[in-house]
Amino acid sequence: MLRPETIAQMPKVELHCHLDGSLSLSCIKTLAKNAKINLNLTDEEILEKAQAPENTRNLLEYLARFDFVLPLLQSYTNLELAAYDVARQAALDNIRYIEIRFAPEQHLLQNLTLEEAVEAVVAGLSRAEENFDIIANALVCGLRQSTLEKLEKLPPIFDHINDSHLVGFDLAGDELNYPQQKFSGLLAQVNARNVHITLHAGECPHCEQNIVDSVNMGATRIGHGIMSKNLPEYQETLISEKIVLEMAPSSNFQTKSVTRIEDYPFKQLYDMGVHVTLNTDNRTVSNTTLQKEYEKISTWYPDFGIEDFEQINHYAIDGAFIDIVEKEALHFKFTDEYKKISD
Ligand SMILES: O=c1[nH]cnc2c1ncn2[C@@H]1O[C@H](CO)[C@@H](O)[C@H]1O
Ligand SMILES: [Zn+2]
């Protein structure tokens, strides 16, 4: 088992982090003040509302926790501050490259347009890049429970926004009731624009088919993908196609993807050669940091060593939605820094 100080030294990549689920306490308070919303709550009460309890029963109960912060994220200023806040926390977590995702349609209650919501987030990420040693990009999420009419407004965002920080598309939300098949037309519109795709899939019990369908619809990464453990014949395809699984241990236990460590497939998939990665999913809702997720993995699998953590970061770099030159620079930097930690 690695010491927390060793884990803290490791540079990290995070591919799966939701903006709205990851706001710090101080940021939540600032956003409320700006929005002229009187929360009238102690710090403990704020966190209680923003975090999912351990006895959360399923994904839908987990997602209900987002209702608390969304009213605070309805202006350009607040979205910019929120994006800055999450990238700042990531830099403190020794993350050098992060992709932060959000669903623009949830931020339009005060007359922002979809494009303005994206511009605000991208502006906050750019400002964080100036102040911290981090590269921070944005992903646009569609919500599965949304109407197709609303969802079809998302692909054109990629025509209208010409900013290098906007790097990909995701589908999040209710996987229990909205399987992947429903979205083939939408994803064709995303593919037509050559936009990178990662999709939440295989997060819920009995949802494994969504993983196969997601890859067939153009996803090169899968959000969680826990149920791939039930697809022994398909694991070879995940390996040969170098599909990246964005796993998030704390979140996966809270949503009851799994309930026993023996059933968590991270190490088994890693040993087979599947490109697994570690992520927070939601720093606040899951009350975590990437440091804590690494510590958890190190405790569960004491043999998972520095070189294994380095390997999953190289997998994450390979799967990142950036160009080959940026990837090479990150690979080089990580190899160099991990070597120093091992020495
Ligand atoms: O683990 C997850 N699975 C599915 N959807 C999620 C998860 N975490 C967050 N969101 C959803 O994504 C939206 C945009 O960030 C959040 O508002 C939440 O509804
Ligand atoms: Zn997620």
TrEMBL record:
The active site is at E203. Binds 1 zinc ion per subunit. Its cofactor is Zn(2+). Substrate binds at H18, D20, G173. InterPro entries: A_deaminase, A_deaminase_dom, Ado/ade_deaminase, Metal_Hydrolase. Its EC number is 3.5.4.4. Residues 11-331 form the Adenosine deaminase domain. Zn(2+) binds at H16, H18, H200, D281. The keyword Hydrolase applies. One of its GO terms (molecular function) is 2'-deoxyadenosine deaminase activity. The keyword Hydrolase applies. It catalyses: adenosine + H2O + H(+) = inosine + NH4(+); 2'-deoxyadenosine + H2O + H(+) = 2'-deoxyinosine + NH4(+). One of its GO terms (cellular component) is cytosol. The record marks H224 as: Important for catalytic activity. Gene3D superfamilies: Metal-dependent hydrolases (3.20.20.140). One of its GO terms (biological process) is adenosine catabolic process. Catalyzes the hydrolytic deamination of adenosine and 2-deoxyadenosine. This is Adenosine deaminase. The lineage of its organism: Bacteria, Bacillati, Bacillota, Bacilli, Lactobacillales.
